[in-house]
């Protein structure tokens, strides 16, 4: 009688786990049968916990941790990394406290993981405490400094992040430079971002950040220099960088430059198509945007449009007066692609109808939308009020203004819009009254700002 096959040794199973986390459940069963998980050495259980985390099963990973007969620092760090990776900062904080209670001091890996949790939740006070702890325990290294820079940048504390960068005692690597560069761009510190580019190693992340800064400041000259660097460094086949180039040329008013980049792309995704359509939309090429959308539908390999794509197409139709085509697109969005229009899509259609003077259709759509929802999004009210102002429809405009004040009476932007509506229809007393109410309530509309490259 043939004997039953012996299960593979635990070391072989752990190697399989590291490369095939989807097999976690099956390997878990084998390890249970072989009693490998009941041994005092927690290596198999920790590997299984990590595999569950990599497979997108944080609940199973947490249960695995709870069932471990013995835990070490590596096991605690694996649990913390799992919770942070799956956006559970509160559970990670509780586990961090549990680790300390169990007598395990935090390592550098522990502090870096918790700094990531603080960055994701923008919790700068606990982050500062972790920073102080890393200094006291002498756990500093370039990885720790990168995590600190990421924390302070995500919390908007750019000066603190730059101070960490300048005072680091370790050789700066590409990850640290990229953290500073991307943080400066995200926080609008474009001058510092451009200055940082002189010292950083050019890679996909740094080039994308540079192009984003050029887009935000409409700096065409610098953007073209970055484009040259993209070509010289061989990144012209990178889809993400090409998408950033399309956006940069579009924001700088060079639609033809954006189209040249688009046509030369080796592979286009939905962001590529949407960005190019949006470029045509912003520069008044409605017919070009529609033609490009039709090309997208026939493209191979197939790329399905999403809600952002349709918003760009609707905006293009609105800016070019293509009302019937815009209505057809909204219908196509639902019937062919199964995408439910969001408030911004309906607001775009209302704006389109208002520009065309079809105020009765605007009102019909507005009534249907407000009847369907208990609380209509503010974008619908704003678009309808603007349509009423453009068509000098006083009665309907006043009704919309009243609805807006009922929905969000503390929004200063609403009071300004209502004041402008009354000014447009020459009701000066009502216009002044809206401004007076703002002053009495202490409401102030945030001033707009723009970044422009000069010289």
From TrEMBL:
Keywords noted in UniProt: Repeat, Transit peptide
Pfam families, per database record: E_motif, PPR, PPR_2
GO molecular function: RNA binding
Gene3D superfamilies: Tetratricopeptide repeat domain (1.25.40.10)
Entry's Gene Ontology BP terms: RNA modification
PPR repeats: 72-106, 173-207, 238-272
InterPro entries: E_motif, PPR_At4g14850-like_plant, PPR_rpt, TPR-like_helical_dom_sf
PANTHER family, per database record: PENTATRICOPEPTIDE REPEAT-CONTAINING PROTEIN
Protein name: Pentacotripeptide-repeat region of PRORP domain-containing protein
Organism of provenance: Setaria viridis (Green bristlegrass)
Taxonomy of the source species: Eukaryota, Viridiplantae, Streptophyta, Embryophyta, Tracheophyta
């Amino acid at each position: 009688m043939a004997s039953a096959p012996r299960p593979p040794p635990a070391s072989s199973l752990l190697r399989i786990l590291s490369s095939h986390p989807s097999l976690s459940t099956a390997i878990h069963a084998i390890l249970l049968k072989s009693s490998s998980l009941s041994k005092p050495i927690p290596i198999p259980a920790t590997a299984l916990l990590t595999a569950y985390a990599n497979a997108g099963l944080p609940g199973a990973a947490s249960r695995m941790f709870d069932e471990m007969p013995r835990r070490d620092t590596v096991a605690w760090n694996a649990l913390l990394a799992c919770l942070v990776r799956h956006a559970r900062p509160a559970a990670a904080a509780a586990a961090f406290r549990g680790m300390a209670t169990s007598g395990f001091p935090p390592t550098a890996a522990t502090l870096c993981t918790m700094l990531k949790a603080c960055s994701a939740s923008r919790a700068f006070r606990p982050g500062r405490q972790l920073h102080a702890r890393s200094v006291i325990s002498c756990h500093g290294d370039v990885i720790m400094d990168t995590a600190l820079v990421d924390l302070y940048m995500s919390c908007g504390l750019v000066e603190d992040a730059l101070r960490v960068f300048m005072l680091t005692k370790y050789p700066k690597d590409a990850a640290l430079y990229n953290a500073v560069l991307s943080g400066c761009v995200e926080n609008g510190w474009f001058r510092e971002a451009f200055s940082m580019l002189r010292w950083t190693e050019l890679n996909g992340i740094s080039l994308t950040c540079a192009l984003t800064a050029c887009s935000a400041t409409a700096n065409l000259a610098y953007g073209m220099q970055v484009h040259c660097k993209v070509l010289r460094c061989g990144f012209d086949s990178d889809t993400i960088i090409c998408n950033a180039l399309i956006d940069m040329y579009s924001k700088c008013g060079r639609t033809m430059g954006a189209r040249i980049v688009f046509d030369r792309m080796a592979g286009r995704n939905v962001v590529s198509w949407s960005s190019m359509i949006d470029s045509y939309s912003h520069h008044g090429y409605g017919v070009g945007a529609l033609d490009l959308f039709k090309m997208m539908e026939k493209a191979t390999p197939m790329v399905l449009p999403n809600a952002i794509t349709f918003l760009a197409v609707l905006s293009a139709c609105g800016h070019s007066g293509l009302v019937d085509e815009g209505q057809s697109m909204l219908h196509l969005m639902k019937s062919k692609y199964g995408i439910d229009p969001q408030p911004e899509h309906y607001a775009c259609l209302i704006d389109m109808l208002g520009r065309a003077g079809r105020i009765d259709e605007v009102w019909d759509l507005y009534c249907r939308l407000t009847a369907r929802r208990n609380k209509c999004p503010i974008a619908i009210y704003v678009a309808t009020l603007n349509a009423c102002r453009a068509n000098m429809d006083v009665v309907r405009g006043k009704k919309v203004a009243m609805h807006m004040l009922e929905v969000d009476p503390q929004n200063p932007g609403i009071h300004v819009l209502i004041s402008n509506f009354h000014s447009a229809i020459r009701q000066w007393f009502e216009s002044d009254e809206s401004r007076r109410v703002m002053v009495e309530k202490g409401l102030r509309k945030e001033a707009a700002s723009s970044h422009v490259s000069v010289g």
